[in-house]
Amino acid sequence: MNAPAEPAGDVAYAAASGLLGSFWLLVAIPLASAAVLLLLGRRADRWGHWLGVAAIGASFVLGLTYFFQLRGLENKSAELSLWDFIAVGDLHVDFGLLFDPLAAVFVLLITGVGFLIHLYAVEYMAHDEGRRRFFAYFNLFVAAMLLLVLGNNYVMLYFGWEGVGLASYLLISFWYGRPSAATAGKKAFLMNRVGDAGLAIGIFIMFATLGTTQYDEVFNGVGSLTGTTVLVLGLLLLLGAAGKSGQFPLQAWLPDAMEGPTPVSALIHAATMVTAGVYLIARSNPVFSANSTLQLVVVSVGALTLLLGCIIGAAKDDIKRVLAWSTVSQIGYMFLGVGLGGGAYALAIIHLLAHGFFKANMFLGAGSVMHGMNDQVDIRRFGGLSKYMKVTWITFMMGWLAIIGLPPLSGYFSKEPIIVAAFTRDDWTAWLFGGAALLGAGLTAFYMTRLFVLTFHGPKRWTEDIEHPHESPKLMTIPLILLAIGSVVAGGLMVWNDGLASWLTPVLGEAGEEHHAVLSHTVITILSLVVTIAGAGLAWSLFRNGTATEPQPAGVLVTAARRNLYTDAFNEAVFEKPGIFLTRALVFLDNRGIDGLVNGLAAAVGGGSGRLRRLQTGFVRSYATSILTGALLVVAAFLAVQAGWLA
Amino acid sequence: MTELKLPSIDYAALAPILIMLGAALLGVLVEAFVPRRHRHLVQLSLGLLAVLAALVMVIFNADDRLITAGGALAVDGPTLFLQGAILVLAAMSLLLIGERSVERGGAFVAQAAVTAESVEDRRQAEGSNGATEVYPLASFAIGGMLIFVAANDLLTMFIALEVFSLPLYLLCALARRRRLLSQEAAMKYFLLGAYASAFFLFGVALVYGFTSGIPGRPAGVDFATIHAAVGESPASQVLLFAGMALLSIGLLFKAAAAPFHVWTPDVYQGAPTPVTGFMAACTKVAAFGALLRVFHVAFAGAAWDFTPVLGAVAVLTMLVGAVLAVTQTDIKRLLAYSSIANAGYLLVGVLAPSRDGLAGTMFYLAAYGFSVLAAFAVVTLVRDADGEATHLSRWAGLGKRSPFFAAVFTFILLAFAGIPLTSGFMSKFAVFAPALDADQAWLVVAGVLTSMVLAFPYLRVVVMMWLSEPGESTPTVTVPGGLTSAALMIGVLATLVLGVVPGPLLDLANGAAEFVR
């Protein structure tokens, strides 16, 4: 097992100075743009989308500038305290931001890939009446995500976290007229709430035990906490992370989130939202590194989810759902990485960035396919599109080759080290997690090849209404091309000379000395290439000639996979049913028990009132009697008191 | 006790009382000499002017802390605060009494023997502006109340009691509508009032007996003498306690505390609504002013002994008021029981023997007076062809017919229920907190529990007004004339302001919360 990398015993951030003093603009620009678009309403319909694109573009340019500024800094951090956000008693929360290497790479990913997706969406949403509203939400989404990664304390992170949740809800159910979209939005929101509650309680624990939520103070104070506190805190943070990142057991919302317009899926899966969980764990690395049980849980969640995603992805026919489950699976790899700790933190971040490129590439590619195929999403009804959509085909191929980890494309450089790291554990768990990662690589190759082949090659299985699929306009293909280039080269560039890993060292700590894996590096590399090629080859041979246009009866495993490995049924049985039962029981208890008690009391009061009322006869004589009785009682009482006094 | 030059009378300090009584006498002359058609305006102006002048004098005297008129009257902080409260509330009451635009001839009738709506009645209503005798009567009552809260011996207190009670009995009988009910109410009030006065007077006699026999000090019923006697009198303690009991019965009767509350619902229902408001606000202030003085000044030495008894009375009062309010079907009776329950809460404040307790009670009296007058002002407006529609079923759906007045009344009811941001919350807090400090938690518990019970009838009215569909018989709210509007506005604003920024009035009460002996 890796020795927990010591992230510099005392974490300290330098105050922002010079040009970096203005990095709050990164958040402010998209936010202002979103506000303008929402407030101006229809008046901004004609140019609103360009404002949205420009806002993200400006943020990206600024992000690049700040990035280069940061490179020149000694301390590699810039902290900005804008104002005292909450000051109640001992409780102080800054509205503060932090720009450091980890935040910087996230900013570049979010704004860079986000910009390309925005550009693509201009054309994709061209015929939608709500394009301006769409771009307002889009900008809000990016702004919230930027706030999430730029906050210098957990409350700021939580702000962004909730903002992302809100924006994703608005975007997933963007076509709220469709019941499925509205339901999907609600599902995403509710499942996120579960995670959010975990994160919120985690933050409360920080308040209670450390009295602060500032990153530096929390990380420096972790050592003073008991093991149990750290475990509970970490598990709660993990729950939050699992909710946002679609990890087991909160993964079910992510595939349903495909109900939103395709650029939304791309943004959720590549640039924002799902990466938030990985960011949270990477950012909180001092917490997670402090408890090995915690790390084991994270690794287990990652390994389980990556297999779950692969298996289900292999059985799905909806092009976007396959990609969605592939995201679940890839994020699983990242969780595996951050769970392994030490040098693997950086590996997870590298995979996250690489994934950002190729997943955005493929989602937008899928959108391009749908654009040309009358919004058809069933890969059983595609086939042979390579001839008609050359650009989409080539760019998608780059994404495909990248994700299955073919050298020298991105995925190879980012995923393969994680597989190696998974084998680098001291005990038998090396075999377990390493094996899972390896198996996942093979399955990934299988289902992605299936997707690619069924879509672009083999016989045409189109529905009758399609005669001649067309390539998408330039505004959509240019982002595709740029992302494809990213898919090809990003991975190699990032690992070049350990560039990114060493860049992240101030945040994630030293890699620590190299532990030798249970298998040699070379063997693992060869193995992973073998399973990848085997998976891809199997898929190619199976689907080269197309497939039935309808799902065929299949074996137990495929049926299970088609039904999401019964995870929905599991959720239904374990959470939904008991939840509904609990609600009903509570309603029953409330109606019969509490209301009964209250009503009983009320009835007693009412009855007593009715009876007492009869004493109010209206006759002066009975009133006088009442007064006399009262008078006698009062006099007697006084005299009784007095008698006691005398005695 | 300080040396007093017996004949010295500080006329400036007594000016508010003299002004009110003078105005009342002048009012009698106005009745005799001013032509009928001018009388109403003259009387109303005279009454309001007198109240304002008296109020100005109270403010002018604000720093007085003295005993004058041969020890009969004490002009000190509580006196001035309560006199001020009575005068402000009386001004609002006069506005309500003076309203003539809601009903021809106002709520009062001069010749009660004439059948309502008969030809003579109509002719009378056309010919006159209603009974203008109400103004001198009200002025006498106000003057009596001003004396009552200043009285520094039991005889003065008794005289003041009669001075303000007798006009009230008459005022109760003058309702234009439902005359028999009104006259019956007045009769009951008079008989029971006389009955209670007898208790009071008997108590005075017993206490006088108790004070005799102290070496070097003549017997007397001034509070300084009683205070001294409580500690050192050789006479039997039975005299003291029996006397104290009988005295408190007379006062508790006026304060409408159980079991001496029996007259309240009938009289509140039967009396003309402006008079009911006047009684609920001003009589309450006067009665509790006297209770405070008697128990904080004269019998302070026996606090350990009267607290449990009066505490039991307070709890019983709260219970009776709250529980009986639940089944009321008439808005005026509902408000009467609410007034009874409030007497219980006020007693809690009386039994908190601290400066805060005294200040809290005085704050409560003022705040409650504003709210209850506003409530009765709304009651005068909800009417149909037969006058005020006081049966609760008639208020169903009022929110749809007249959202503004329903909202105003809802706000007042919420204040009664003690919802924060209303004066009701602040005043309950102001009496309960000192009671807790004085280790009277049982009173506070009873207070909070009965408040919960009492919230039900209030909210029931709110629910009826807003959530029921207006029926055929739902009356409309008459557009109020300027006078009622002014009174209503003052009451509602005070209820709101005292709930949001109670600080100034609480400070004022706190600064005034010290008796002179």
Automatic annotation (TrEMBL), chain A:
Topological category with respect to the lipid bilayer: Multi-pass membrane protein
Domain (NADH:quinone oxidoreductase/Mrp antiporter transmembrane) ranges: 152-435
Alphabetical UniProt keywords: Membrane, Transmembrane, Transmembrane helix
InterPro entries: NADHpl_OxRdtase_5_subgr (IPR018393), ND/Mrp_TM (IPR001750), NU5C-like (IPR003945), Proton_antipo_N (IPR001516)
Location, primary (coarse class): membrane
Keyword Membrane tagged: yes
Cellular-component GO terms for this entry: endomembrane system; membrane
Gene3D superfamilies: 1.20.5.2700
Ranges annotated as spanning the membrane: 12-40, 47-68, 102-122, 134-151, 157-176, 197-215, 221-243, 264-282, 294-315, 322-342, 348-370, 391-410, 430-454, 475-496, 516-543, 623-645
GO function term, MF aspect, one: NADH dehydrogenase (ubiquinone) activity
Cross-referenced Pfam families: Proton_antipo_M, Proton_antipo_N
Domain NADH-Ubiquinone oxidoreductase (complex I) chain 5 N-terminal: residue ranges: 85-135
Subcellular location: Endomembrane system; Membrane
GO biological process: ATP synthesis coupled electron transport; electron transport coupled proton transport
Protein name as it appears in the record: NADH dehydrogenase subunit L
Natural source organism: Micromonospora haikouensis
Upper lineage: Bacteria, Bacillati, Actinomycetota, Actinomycetes, Micromonosporales
TrEMBL record, chain B:
Biological process per Gene Ontology, one example term: ATP synthesis coupled electron transport
Catalytic activity: a quinone + NADH + 5 H(+)(in) = a quinol + NAD(+) + 4 H(+)(out)
Sequence intervals crossing the membrane: 12-34, 41-60, 80-98, 132-151, 157-177, 189-210, 238-263, 275-300, 306-327, 334-352, 358-382, 403-421, 441-467, 479-501
A Pfam cross-reference name: Proton_antipo_M
Subcellular compartments: Cell membrane; Endomembrane system; Membrane
Top-level division of the source organism's lineage: Bacteria
UniProt-listed Enzyme Commission number(s): 7.1.1.-
Entry GO CC: endomembrane system; plasma membrane
Membership in a protein family: Belongs to the complex I subunit 2 family.
Mode of membrane association: Multi-pass membrane protein
Alphabetized UniProt keyword annotations: Cell membrane, Membrane, NAD, Quinone, Translocase, Transmembrane, Transmembrane helix, Transport
Primary localization class, coarse: membrane
Domain NADH:quinone oxidoreductase/Mrp antiporter transmembrane stretches: 151-452
Protein name: NADH-quinone oxidoreductase subunit N
GO MF annotation list: NADH dehydrogenase (quinone) (non-electrogenic) activity; NADH dehydrogenase (ubiquinone) activity; quinone binding
Subunit-level organization: NDH-1 is composed of 14 different subunits. Subunits NuoA, H, J, K, L, M, N constitute the membrane sector of the complex.
Function: NDH-1 shuttles electrons from NADH, via FMN and iron-sulfur (Fe-S) centers, to quinones in the respiratory chain. The immediate electron acceptor for the enzyme in this species is believed to be a menaquinone. Couples the redox reaction to proton translocation (for every two electrons transferred, four hydrogen ions are translocated across the cytoplasmic membrane), and thus conserves the redox energy in a proton gradient.
